[in-house]
Structures are given as C-alpha cells and as structure tokens.
Design a protein that fits this description.
The protein has helices at residues 9-12, 51-56, 62-70, 72-78, 90-105, 107-113, 130-139, 148-158, 165-175, 184-198, 253-263, 266-285, 295-303, 332-355, 365-368; strands at 44-47, 114-116, 180-182, 211-219, 226-234, 238-245, 289-290, 308-315, 322-326. The chain is α/β, with parallel strands linked by helices.
Length: 384
Amino acid sequence: MTHITEPGLYPEMEALHDVLPDFEPFEGPVADPIVLPETALGDGIYFGLPEAEYHAQPRLSASGIKAMQASVEDFWHDSWMNPLPDREERDSLTLGNAYHARILEGKEALDRQFAPMLDKADYPDALDTVSELKARLSDLGLKVSGNKPELIERLREANPDAVIWDDIVSAYGKKHAGKTFLHPDQLRRIEYAAAFIEKHPTLGKAFRGGQPEVTILWTDRETGVRMKSRLDYLKVRGIVDLKSFANKSSKPTDKAIMSEIANYRYHIQAAVYVEAIEVAKSLFTDGKVAGKHDPDWLKKCMATPEHQFMFVFQKSTKAPLVRSKVLPRDRMTIESGRSAMNIAMRQFREFYDRFGDQGEPWLDFDAMNPSNIEDDEMPMYAFD
C-alpha cells in the first residue's frame, strides 16, 4: 500500500503527481441547450446556495447518473420531473446535515443550525402535568379548577419563582429559534467523530482554508444537457469529498473502503466533480459567480491547472476512524467514471427529446422488450 506523506498535501492540497494534461475539451458542434424553467438558476459558480435549492435545480447530477445506470425509469422516478416522489427519511437526513455542518464548516456553524433537545431530567423541580400544578396550588390554598394555561397563570401570580416546565420550553424555543433540535447524545457523537479528523496533524486541515458546499451549474456543450455538482469542500488545489461507511462485515478497513467506492460508484461522482471544476474556470472568466466568497481566493483556485480529488472516509459505526484516499486523474477508475457520465448525458438527451420534462414518465421501450434468459447471465449459486 502506498501512503501519501508529503507534508504540504492537506494544508494546500498540493499536487501529488506530475501535472497531467487536462481532459480533452470538446471541439465539435455545440448542441442546443435544454431549456430551463424561468425559476431555475443559470450556469455559474454559487457559494452558500441552500441545499434544498440545489436539489431543486432541474439538472443532471452524479446521483442521477448512477440512477440512470440502473434504469432510465429509476432516474425519472427520483428526479424533479416526477410529480409523486417518494418521501425521504427526514431523521437520517437531519443527522447527516448536522454532521456535514460540523466537519465542513466547524463548531460555530453547527451551533448556528442545531441545538440539543431539552431534557426534563435536568429540571427535576419543574412542574409539568395538570396534577402537579393543582397539587402546588392546593398547597398554597388556591383554587384548583380550570385548564392548564389557567392553572399556570394562577400559579405565576401567586408564586413568581415557581419553576414551570412550559415556561422553560417556551424560553428555550425562543433562544434557539430556527434551529433543529437533536438529542444531546447525537451531538456528542458528532463532536467525537470530528475529533478523529481534527486531531490528525495534517488531515485536520483538509476542511480548512477553503469553501464548503460549492455549487457549480453548467451546460454540456456536446449534448446540451444541464449539469450540476455540489462540492463538499473546495480548496485552492483540491476537491475534498466527505463520505461515511459502516463496514458491518468487519473487513480490513481499506478493503471496506474500496468496496464502498465500487458499490456506490463514487468514482462517477469524482469524475463529475473534476469536470465541474474544469468548467468552473470558464464560468469564472465570464463573471458567473454568485454568493459570499473571497475573490482573491477564488482567483487562485481557478488558476490552478489541475485540482486533485480526495475522499475522506469516516466510519459511522463503533470507532469513527478516518481514512483518506486520493484518486489521481490518470487512473482507469476515474476514466470509467467519466465514460459513465458521457453515456448518461447522451442517454438523458435522447429521452428528454422523446418524453420531455412535463410529468410523462420516461420509459426504455427497448429494455422492456422480451429477451432470453442466458445461462451465463445467471449467478453461479442458482445452480447449487
């Protein structure tokens, strides 16, 4: 196994290999771009774009390309074109957003967006139930009739120092207005995970000195397909992508990560992101930049001949150990991802021209035609 040891890698994401030629630019005829709705964002580099707004953009992304590899129908079902999408698992998404905020933007960003849930056990003397309120009023020789708000108001007048749970909840909600509440154990787990990254003398700088959640929207010249990418973390000389993995089978960690890359086809995402940063240089030249950013930093970033791509994998179960993997641009792995991207863009254009984007499902008629079951297509365990 080769370990990357250059001391300057993480602070500046310096190149690990000799600079390679850029991907060959497309020089053929430019296709008519797919028409965007008036409400959609145009091509450009966007800083600070809300996640929901990014996902709402009617464009093809790395996740869409992977869905299209399964089937055109799966892609359409998961896309913005489906008027009846599946409901997402909000709890897991919320926890993932909190984790990303902490790792990519730091503790202050986490605290701006999230807060620990109140724990009633921390307020053992707080009066909560109607029975508790009536008992206290009875002790004070006051009447005990009425609904809960009336009981609370009566108790406040008689005893301003009374600890009332409803008041605690109200004050806490005002203090953290607009925030999402997580269980304290979840927030402690996030801090624990962050320490595994930040305590490393060089990897701890992988998510510092750059910009988190950079959105790049562009149009492919060959197909006219509108594309989008949201880079986890962009540095002057590199792209850093944060991934989690479980390793439930207890494989050796590096093998588990390689399986994760293959199973979830993360190399496709890497290829799309590398393409995005190349296109971003032209967008920058054309002044298509929006959102709060440091112009001098962006100028240096766009002047970099070639950005390195690095995964940071963190285990989501047991010890949140961390491993980092660089994917050089001369490897077959990333070329395979680029090939998948090109095939998906052409396929997207074909089905868009056939079915449009107004709610009619995309159907792969050729794949739906009957076909023979061939012996060599069956998994070997079928014959056990």
